[in-house]
Amino acid sequence: MDLFLAGLLGALQGLTEFFPVSSSGHLALFSFWFGLPNDDLTFEILVHLATLAAIVTYFRKDWVLLAKSLFSKENGDLPNLILLYLMVSMIPAGVVGIFFKDAVVWMNHQPVAIGFCLCLMGGLLLLGLKAPSATKALPDLSWTVVVAMAMAQALAILPGISRSGITILCAIFLGLQKPAAARYSFLMAVPVIGGAGLLAIVDLLDKIDQLQPGLLAAYAVGFLSALISGFFALAFLMRLLNGNRFFYFGWYCLAMGILAIVL
User: Fold this and answer.
1) N or C: which end of the chain has fewer CB within 10 A?
2) Residue 204 near residue 45, CB atoms below 8 Å
3) 36 φψ region: left (φ > 0), alpha (ψ -120 to 50), beta (else)
4) How many domains does the chain have?
5) Strand pairing partners for 250?
6) Cβ contacts of residue 175 below 8 Å, gap of 6+?
7) Mean pLDDT of the chain
8) Which of helix, strand or coil describes residue 152?
């Protein structure tokens, strides 16, 4: 993998991770269409770690509050059970990742299946235009919303189903305001992506002596590209949550899905 390709794929990951269009679906489709490598799991997890770093940086105040809550009752406007909520949210995605890993890897090489998932995601996003007005703020987060979002996050392991899109949409339909839904959606992504990233780092350290310097440089370029593009994409998305502009990504998902099926 050359440096330009690594930077391109990293930017693609950073931009599509936060917009509700499925980063894994885009990486798989672009790899298939342009004959790019699609089997480097280490690179894929590293660019996901980069977007994780973007989340932690953007929501740094929330993570400071979470750290303080370990030693005191101070947690600002976060729910009192926020740490427990985040731990529970990991379980469904972890179960799916362990028991259905081979199926997901297979699907990453099936553009038609990814296209159908993108069409489904697009339809769900457009359905969000009919969602009732939400009134609940983040401190009103309930177990019903937490479990539903955790299940939605597990479904998003399928390429073509956007993790941010389906979890935010799920929360909105359950009455959580859009900014609060997005805020919790990205907070709950941290332990899931972080857990997978730790495994990738351990694997990378085990074989680092066998890697060529050029490949390590490509990993670094991909990581930085995903980090920078991801931070700005996240900041832009949080502004888009005002009004109904978030749901209009459904048209894009439908177009990409149809294109994947046709091609």
Assistant:
1) C
2) no
3) beta
4) 1
5) none
6) 132, 134, 135, 136, 145
7) 86
8) helix
| Distance from C-alpha of 258 to C-alpha of 87, rounded to nearest angstrom | 37
- 226: β partners: none
**Pair of tokens at residue 112:** 């038609």
How far is residue 180's CA from residue 174's CA, in Å, rounded to a whole number?
12
pLDDT in tens, 185-233: 999 988 877 776 676 677 666 666 666 666 778 888 999 999 999 999 9
CA atoms lying within 13 Å on the CB side of residue 225: 21
**How far lies 226's CA from each of 28, 81, 85, 115, in Å?**
16, 31, 28, 24
Give Cα separations from 2 to 37, 46, 62, 199, 258 (angstroms): 11, 16, 37, 24, 30
- Domain limits at 238? 3-262
Tokens, residue 119: 């069409």
Packing angle between helix 213-240 and helix 41-58, nearest 10 degrees? 40
**What is the residue whose two structure tokens read 């269009």?**
21
**Residue 243: count of CB within 10 angstroms of its CB:** 9
Residue 176 sits at φ, ψ, to 5 deg, of -85, 135
Which letter does DSSP use for residue 263 in this model? -
Q: Residue 178 CA to chain centroid, in angstroms?
A: 17
pLDDT in tens, 131-186: 888 788 988 899 999 999 999 999 998 999 999 999 999 999 999 999 899 999 99
Residue (of 155, 123, 163) closest to 24 by Cα position: 163
